């Protein structure tokens, strides 16, 4: 605590008393003692008052001088508190103006009071009072709480308006840990949490949660409202920091970073720390699934104090007023009795709207924390707990009444997982909900919890009718943990998905959530379940007929369509029924070709499906669809497959490979693996060589592909990489992937299956050192 209190005044020799008012005497004394001025308030009071009039300091230096003289254990802190309250009021007005201006870049001239307060050491004085209050409790508990609140308010307002203050506080680990100890006081919890959140947001090195004294006891002492607020802090401590540089997002850079940082990151360690807190996940599940009517609180108006922690911009208030207005309009249409409206003015209905938005914003933070934990290394442990505590059935019960209770316009850009978002609370809530569903379903057997018992029976019936065995995960699903009611969560999602406008960014997240249900080993029953609900026709409408121009939305729909149609002859038959004119088919091809990075997963699906169907010619239904389906006929022409292969290799290189476009490399490999199975690999490689010469850049394409495959080996043969995704999505054993890559990279120039055989000597190894360490 001594480090937080700071040093004594140089003019007092360690004692608090009034100094000589002559500034020259003070400078002389500092030379003798060897202790110079350390803050502006050490200047003579008369000088400060005189300068105050010209500089328009509004008496802040004088107030700070009096405050500092009272900042010792034996002083009357209640008297000092009166000075602090005046200062807090002055700074609060500036902070509020900053918030309403959407947090524009702070400048000294814009916020003169805050600047003056910081310039004359006000931040350090406030820190001193906080520590003194913790060490020497006042006789009056109410006064004690008010003093702490004002100290925290002053510091928070300084952080809002002056970035340098936030950074300086963040650099003091002792102070940050000290703040966590203040969270035990429920009356000052919210102010403390808000300040911690701002500080952690700029802290260079992520805080370690295990370093917080008695973290488990602290979290267990929180009520549900406090726990929801605490999730805002946790979101900063468990998320990997956004590197903010596109170059660092490349797979080449990520692989190099993983080599240098073999040990778990601080975010991963913090995730484990949270999971070890007894009852933590269970309480988050209860928070995420509780109804608005279940939110506790003796008097909701007392919770209005909480609101300033959420008011980062005016969007919250806009949403609040919009909801209240909608309620008023709904009441007016339901009843024409003007007297009833007069007795129920808008201001009386406002608290219910506030309570709804309040609850929504709590859930946004809780769902975010659960989502991050679901994507971490402890995923299976988290999955088991979320299933046990019935998170999915609880969200299903909230779907119509809270999550998607009404249409919300959303034409904003699609945000990444760690990006700051200035969306309205309802938009943020929906996106976070969809992210959670995506993470929950992706490559995990618990995905069947998104259905209800009747829907699970439907899946079983589909398998029985097709004379195929039920998926093991479906058989093992604990039916006591699935959704209740007439519809499961997946079916509800499909319903609202069809109602979204063409370019709504909700479509992106909705498609991702549904796609994650299909990802992994292809399940015919899962596909038919969705096909019977018109999903394929809906997707094709969006791609061909809706006029959708959002690349994000189109990419998500291409990926979903690929998973929905893969190896499914019924899906290709339905496709041909919808795309029933040459014009529609040409529009579909144009959308695919407009961005192959976005559509290559669909191309892969078509190629794989065609290969399987061609081996099932004894099936009359398959033969019929093969002969009639325009999409299969198009891909069956070797020149079209070669055109896709050429473009897939040409649009990527090792330096630009990312998690988003590495699928292009894998799709090109799928085309060549299938060609190798049919002994056609030399034909394809020679066609690539001829294309190079025709385009007048011999060697470039094949050298680039050679380098890409060398990177592929380093990337996918790493012991930490999970190769099952490639194997499950293609139904090609990973051993065959490895073998094909080795053959293509063979150094024997006499081998007709080695890339090197098709590059003339003068053009060999144009990028020889590209992958060298």
TrEMBL record:
Span of the signal peptide: none
A GO biological-process term: ubiquitin-dependent protein catabolic process
A GO cellular-component term linked to this record: Cul4A-RING E3 ubiquitin ligase complex
InterPro entries referenced in this protein's UniProt entry, alphabetically: TRPC4AP
Source organism superkingdom: Eukaryota
GO molecular function, one term: phosphatase binding
Protein name (record): Transient receptor potential cation channel, subfamily C, member 4 associated protein a
Organism: Sander lucioperca (Pike-perch)
């Amino acid at each position: 605590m001594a480090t937080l209190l700071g040093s004594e005044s140089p003019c007092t020799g360690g004692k608090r008393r009034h100094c000589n008012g002559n500034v020259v005497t003070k400078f002389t004394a500092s030379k003798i003692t060897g202790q110079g001025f350390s803050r502006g308030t050490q200047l003579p009071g008369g000088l400060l008052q005189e300068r105050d009039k010209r500089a328009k300091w509004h008496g802040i230096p004088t107030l700070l001088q009096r405050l500092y003289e009272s900042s010792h254990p034996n002083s009357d802190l209640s008297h000092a508190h009166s000075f602090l309250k005046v200062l807090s009021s002055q700074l609060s007005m500036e902070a509020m103006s900053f918030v309403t201006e959407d947090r524009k870049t702070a400048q000294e001239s814009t916020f003169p009071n805050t600047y003056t307060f910081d310039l004359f050491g006000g931040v350090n004085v406030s820190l001193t009072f906080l520590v003194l209050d913790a060490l020497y409790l006042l006789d009056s508990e109410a006064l004690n709480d008010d003093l702490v609140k004002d100290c925290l308010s002053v510091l928070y307002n300084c952080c809002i308006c002056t970035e340098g203050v936030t950074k300086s506080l963040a650099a003091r680990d002792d102070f940050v840990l000290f703040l966590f100890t203040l969270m035990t006081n429920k009356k000052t919890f919210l102010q403390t949490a808000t300040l911690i959140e701002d500080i952690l947001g700029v802290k260079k090195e992520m805080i370690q949660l295990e370093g917080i004294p008695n973290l488990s006891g602290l979290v267990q002492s929180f009520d549900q409202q406090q726990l929801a607020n605490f999730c805002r802090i946790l979101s900063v401590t468990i998320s990997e920091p956004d590197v903010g540089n596109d170059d660092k997002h490349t797979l080449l850079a990520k692989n190099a970073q993983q080599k240098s940082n073999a040990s778990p990151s601080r975010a991963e360690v913090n995730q484990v720390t949270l999971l070890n807190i007894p009852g933590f996940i269970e309480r988050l599940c209860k928070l995420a699934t509780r109804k608005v009517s279940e939110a506790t609180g003796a008097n909701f108006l007392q919770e209005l104090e909480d609101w300033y922690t959420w008011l980062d911009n005016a969007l919250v208030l806009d949403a609040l007023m919009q909801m209240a207005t909608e309620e008023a309009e709904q009441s007016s249409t339901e009843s024409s009795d003007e007297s009833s409206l007069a007795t129920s003015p808008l201001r009386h209905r406002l608290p219910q709207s506030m309570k709804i938005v309040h609850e929504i914003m709590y859930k946004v933070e809780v769902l975010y924390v659960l989502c991050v934990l679901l994507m971490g290394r402890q995923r299976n442990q988290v999955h088991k707990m979320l299933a046990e505590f019935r998170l999915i059935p609880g969200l299903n019960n909230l779907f119509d009444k809270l999550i998607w209770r009404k249409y919300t316009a959303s034409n904003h850009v699609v945000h990444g997982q760690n990006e700051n978002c200035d969306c309205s609370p309802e938009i943020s809530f929906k996106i976070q909900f969809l992210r959670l569903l995506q993470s929950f379903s992706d490559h995990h057997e618990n995905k069947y919890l998104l259905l209800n018992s009747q829907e699970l029976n439907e899946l079983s019936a589909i398998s029985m009718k097709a004379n195929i065995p039920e998926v093991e995960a479906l058989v093992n699903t604990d039916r006591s943990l699935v959704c209740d009611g007439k519809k499961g969560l997946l079916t509800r999602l499909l319903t609202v998905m069809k109602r979204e406008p063409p370019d709504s960014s909700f479509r992106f997240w909705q498609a991702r959530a549904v796609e994650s249900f299909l990802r992994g080993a292809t399940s015919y029953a899962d596909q038919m379940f969705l096909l019977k609900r018109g999903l394929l026709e809906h997707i094709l409408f969006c791609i061909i007929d809706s006029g959708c121009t959002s690349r994000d939305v189109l990419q998500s729909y291409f990926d979903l369509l690929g998973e929905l149609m893969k190896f499914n002859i019924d899906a290709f038959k339905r496709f041909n029924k919808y795309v029933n004119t040459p014009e529609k088919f040409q529009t579909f091809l144009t959308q695919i070709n407009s961005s192959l990075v976005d559509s290559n997963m669909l191309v892969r699906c078509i190629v794989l499906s065609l290969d399987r169907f061609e081996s099932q010619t004894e099936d009359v239904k398959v033969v019929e669809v093969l002969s009639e389906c325009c999409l299969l006929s198009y891909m069956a022409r070797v020149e079209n497959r070669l055109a896709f292969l050429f473009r897939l290799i040409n649009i990527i290189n090792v330096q630009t490979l990312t998690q988003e476009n590495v699928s292009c490399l894998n799709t090109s490999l799928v085309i060549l693996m299938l060609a190798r199975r049919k002994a056609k690999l030399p034909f394809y490689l020679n066609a690539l060589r001829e294309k190079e010469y025709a385009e007048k850049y011999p060697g470039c394409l094949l050298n680039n592909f050679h380098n890409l495959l060398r990177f592929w080996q380093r990337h996918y043969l790493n012991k930490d990489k999970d190769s099952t995704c490639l194997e499950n999505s293609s139904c090609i054993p990973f051993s065959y992937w490895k073998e094909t890559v080795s053959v293509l990279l063979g150094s024997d120039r006499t081998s007709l299956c080695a890339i090197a055989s098709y590059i003339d000597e003068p053009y060999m190894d144009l990028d020889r050192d590209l992958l060298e360490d």
